[in-house]
Amino acid sequence: RAKAGQSEMGTPFSTWVLQQEMKDNIDNEHAIVLQSISVACKQIASLVQRAGLAGMTGLAGEQNVQGEDQKKLDVISNDVFCDTLRLSGRTGVIASEEEDVPVAVEETYGGNYVCVFDPLDGSSNIDAAVSTGSIWGIYAGDSQCVPDFSSESPAEVEAKCVQNVCQPGENLVSAGYCMYSSSTILVISVGDGVFGFTLDSAVGEFIMTHERIQIPKSGKIYSFNEGNYDMWTPGLKQYMDSLKTGGKETGTKPYSARYIGSLVGDFHRTMLYGGIYGYPGDAKNPTGKLRLLYECAPMSFLAEQAGGAGSDGTGRVLKINPEKVHQRVPFFTGSVEEVAYLESFMK
Ligand code: AHM
Ligand code: MG
């Protein structure tokens, strides 16, 4: 067991999870859910890596409830996540970007935890072998609102599942993502800092490579889909223009643009190098593109745990009470000073 002040670098993920349990950061059930998620991520990493060889690129031929074309790997990754969480026996309700409604895990499996996830975010990048990722958040279930399969109708069960899932991000007990890129990196917080683990494929285990990640307070990199500029509000356009003349320190070096179009990749870079990632609302989509529950809230939890910020342009994302499972919100995250500067243009 690592002593206080001693580096934990090199710790295998499974050992780290047990240490979190010993520190009372999580309970035993939560630990089992986290171990299951890490297994799902390893499976998805291997699928993503082999996608081109195994005929898994391209469309699945279906749309999800949000009208988006599903890729073959979206569907497969969703199955991997759902099956692994079910088998953990500790997740009562799961909600996914790829499922129409939150699903109650069968009664026989039960469980106290609610898991929200986007199994394969940024999947438009898959066919070009560019970075993608999985994002998840875990809530404690509402003990007053447990679906009863024996006496309740499917509609009643569904309503209870929605109620379990629609919690503000500040109720998250843990959140994380796994990035499938030149390395596979799992980043997680159980509410006591942010840690990153790189998959060592030779031994099949995630190994700690990033200890207590801190987002730099400021950073001159912006990550927005600027192709939407003409549809932005005057305030946001002014903000974007100002970055090109040095931002808050007018007359200094302009910001650099970096945009993968994969939230996990863009967020990961922002967390390590500083700067800001944004997906604003625009004239066509006033609430933007990204989903509150399984994209913005988990990332905001991680950002805050790393000393950064997650905002909808007016305030903390973690404060927002979801009304719908697939609700979208404008999203800005990264260095605290950069997010505050952006907010000053949104008032
Ligand atoms: P997805 O969940 O359907 O993959 O969409 C989310 C992705 C994010 O990863 C990324 O930041 C954003 O969509 C990119 O959108 P755009 O192509 O409009 O820039
Ligand atoms: Mg997504």
Automatic annotation (TrEMBL):
Q: Which NCBIfam families match?
A: PRK09293.1-1
**What is this protein called in UniProt?**
fructose-bisphosphatase
| Domain Fructose-1-6-bisphosphatase class 1 C-terminal residues, every copy | 215-347
Gene Ontology biological process: fructose 1,6-bisphosphate metabolic process; fructose 6-phosphate metabolic process; fructose metabolic process; gluconeogenesis; sucrose biosynthetic process
Output the PANTHER family linked to this UniProt entry.
Answer: FRUCTOSE-1,6-BISPHOSPHATASE-RELATED (PTHR11556), FRUCTOSE-BISPHOSPHATASE (PTHR11556:SF1)
Q: Which family does it belong to?
A: Belongs to the FBPase class 1 family.
State the organism of origin: Bathycoccus prasinos
GO MF assignments:
fructose 1,6-bisphosphate 1-phosphatase activity; metal ion binding
